[in-house]
Write a structure and sequence with these properties.
Elements (H helix, E strand, L loop, with lengths): L22 H17 L9 H18 L1 H19 L7 H15 L7 H17 L1 H17 L3
Helix pairs in contact: 1-2, 2-3, 2-5, 2-6, 3-4, 3-5, 4-5, 5-6
Length: 153
């Protein structure tokens, strides 16, 4: 009989690709990247509204899922977005409808070079999509599942 030797080698700890990180890390990192990209970073390029929409949506989804102050910020963005669509005098489209309307405006409106507006609308849309559930909420759930796996959850 040969004894079995187990060597500890550096590598993946379960599925933690970055070591011991949490959803809070991903929420903070996405916020930093979004702001840097909007400000004209030489490393992170947000050059059109599609990129701003994607960065904003992912950031909003991560903020809500991180909890704590990040979730409070996300909910504030969601409240602003909800007030832009629900209290207009045209009727209430519902939470899912508000999410879809905000994302539609972020995607379709001609913002020219002002990429902060579609990013803001996408953050609001992501928060409301997560609250609404259904098909709009599935994207938020997918983002959470992927990042939770990366964080080891």
């Amino acid at each position: 009989m040969h004894p079995t030797v187990v060597l500890a080698a550096p590598g993946f700890n379960g599925m933690q690709l970055l070591g011991a990180v949490t959803l809070t890390f991903f929420a903070a990192a996405s916020a930093i990247c979004l702001i840097a990209g909007l400000k004209g970073s030489d490393r992170i390029k947000i050059q059109n509204k599609d990129q701003a929409l994607i960065w904003g949506f992912v950031t909003g989804a991560l903020w809500v899922n991180a909890g704590g102050t990040w979730a409070d910020w996300g909910k504030s963005f969601g409240d602003v977005g909800r007030s832009m669509t629900a209290d207009t005098g045209f009727g209430d489209p519902g939470v899912g409808g508000s999410a879809c309307l905000l994302l539609l405006v972020a995607w379709a409106w001609p913002f020219k070079k002002r990429m902060a507006f579609p990013a803001f609308l996408a953050i609001s849309g992501a928060v409301l999509a997560g609250q609404a559930g259904g098909i709009p909420g599935m994207a938020v759930g997918i983002i959470r599942a992927i990042v939770s796996k990366m964080a080891g959850g």
